[in-house]
Design brief:
Strand content: 15-25%
Number of domains: 1
Largest sheet: 5 strands, parallel
Radius of gyration: 18 Å
Order of helices and strands: EHEEEHEEHEHEHHEHH
CATH topology: Rossmann fold
Helix content: 40-55%
Number of strands: 9
Shape: globular
Number of helices: 8
Length: about 200
Amino acid sequence: MANRGTLFIISAPSGAGKTTLYKMALEGVDHLSPSVSYTTRPKRGTEIEGVDYCFVSKEDFDTMIADNEFIEWAEVHGNKYGTPKKGIHEKLDKGEDILFDIDVQGARNLKAQFPDAVLIFVLPPSFDILKERLNSRNTNETDDINVRMDNALQEVKAVKDFDYLIINNFLTKALKDLEAIIVAQRAKVNANSFDFDKFISY
């Protein structure tokens, strides 16, 4: 019987680079499944429906809440984001690991329901660099940037609740750190479930 899978949850203030790390990890780490959230915010740039997010209207999102279709959901920067229940438990029972790219509120909600989930916080080297990254985005208006900077100050305080911290100064180094966390956690799970009696029977 396969070991139960693990939830790996990446959170960060906007502009820290968590979504880029998330996508690169999915491409580079074997046996890692994505979790695609639902959101009411508009699609940005090259985002793909069903890959980056499932984009729905506020009315449809509220209907999904009423129908209890989310493991967790939260309102962030004026938009709603939710993690669908469908498929999560089935993947875990099959031993599949799942990678999440969600906000701090969502990470806390998932941790409450899945105590073994691994929480990974991503930060840039400094708050000034975070602001520079937000300013460089063509998708963010000035008012939106100010809201995100204010929220970032509060979100950074959540780092104490996380298991790991990655400083995203150089993307290649940050990706190696993320991959190392996943590999180490898998080794830890395998060690805890090691069947000694089966081992010595050979």
